[in-house]
Design a protein that fits this description.
324 residues; globular; 7-stranded mixed β-sheet; 4-stranded mixed β-sheet
């Protein structure tokens, strides 16, 4: 029986894939499988994965004929997964030796639906441990306790799918798939759904995931139209949260987070192509207009003056567009 399935999407990461694959080799066990999903790469990545399928214990090579984005690639891996537990890694990151076994031991000992790890952020030669904004460590809890309060970072603001491990029952209940086609922020509706729908989770530390920040091929570094998928992602967060039994308590957090992300993108708008920047402004204004306006009022009042001014200006633009 397969104990653990690890889903690893790859897209044009021939520079980094060798490190990722080597780290999987150093984590391999007879009861682990590694689902290597090539999202229609156009560089040397496919050749590296074909070789890994022959040489890496537990490797399964899956290939898309068309590029579908990270969410779709992860879903392909999930659909093929056979493990009792599941985990994720991205093709430009890597794992410390034995990390998967340590995390598996933790989730089995805690007997919870999922666990969340700290991780190591890599920027050039710098290494910085990033901790999940939740405590205590190693204690199973209701995942809903990882959502609030609205005014400070919580577990849903630490959305990285690869920073954790998940019991298969979550997959069987439809909680692990991503919104198909989302090219960025795909983990935002995913982490919110997980915290609303699962029954138990724990933060376990174990920072054995190395996340490369600033990779030139990453969508977080590219100012094209794909970046605007964050709006569709957060629209889904708002819609799903509004239908939740605790909507009155949870919506302020969802709206405030959405506002913070909009303000972040507007604040760095110069990195976008001119036509994309224009679209960002108009789509952000429309998004503010779709939010529950009473909840939005409270969120804007609670934010610092700089972000609040930017968002109120966009909101007026939304109102003027509706009036026209």
């Amino acid at each position: 029986m397969v104990k653990l399935s690890v889903v690893v999407p790859f897209y044009n990461v021939q520079t980094y894939a060798p490190d990722a694959l080597k780290s999987l080799e150093l984590n391999a066990r007879d009861d682990f499988e590694f689902l290597l999903v090539d999202d229609c790469s156009t560089d040397g990545t496919p050749g590296l994965l074909e070789r890994a399928a022959r040489e890496l214990p537990g490797a399964v090579h899956l290939r898309h004929e068309q590029n579908g984005g990270l969410a779709t690639a992860r879903n392909t891996g999930l659909d093929a997964a056979r493990g009792e537990y599941l985990a994720f890694m991205d093709g430009d990151d890597w794992l410390a030796p034995g990390h998967l076994a340590r995390t598996l031991a933790a989730i089995e000992a805690l007997n919870c639906d999922f666990v969340r790890n700290d991780h190591v952020q890599v920027a050039g030669k710098a290494r910085t441990v990033q901790r999940i904004p939740y405590g205590p460590q190693g204690v199973p809890a209701d995942p809903r306790t990882g959502i609030l309060p609205a005014e400070r970072p919580t577990s849903v603001d630490y959305p990285y799918a690869w920073a954790g491990m998940y019991h298969r029952r979550l997959l069987d209940r439809g909680l692990l798939h991503f919104t198909d086609g989302l090219r960025t922020a795909e983990d935002r509706p995913w982490i919110w759904r997980l915290h609303r729908g699962a029954e138990s989770f724990a933060a376990v530390g174990l920072p054995g995931i190395f996340y490369r920040r600033g990779v030139s091929t990453s969508l977080t570094q590219i100012g094209d139209v794909r970046q605007l998928d964050f709006i569709r992602a957060f629209d889904q967060v708002i819609t799903d949260t509004a239908a939740d039994r605790d909507a009155a308590k949870l919506l302020p957090k969802a709206v405030r987070t959405y506002c913070a992300i909009i303000a972040h993108h507007i604040g760095s708008i110069e990195r976008f192509e001119p036509d994309v920047a224009k679209k960002l402004r108009s789509m952000s204004a429309a998004a503010l207009g779709r939010m529950p306006q009473d909840v939005l009022d409270t969120a804007l009042d609670s934010m610092d003056a700089e972000r609040s001014v930017v968002l109120r200006r966009l909101r007026r633009r939304s109102g003027e567009g509706a009036a026209a």
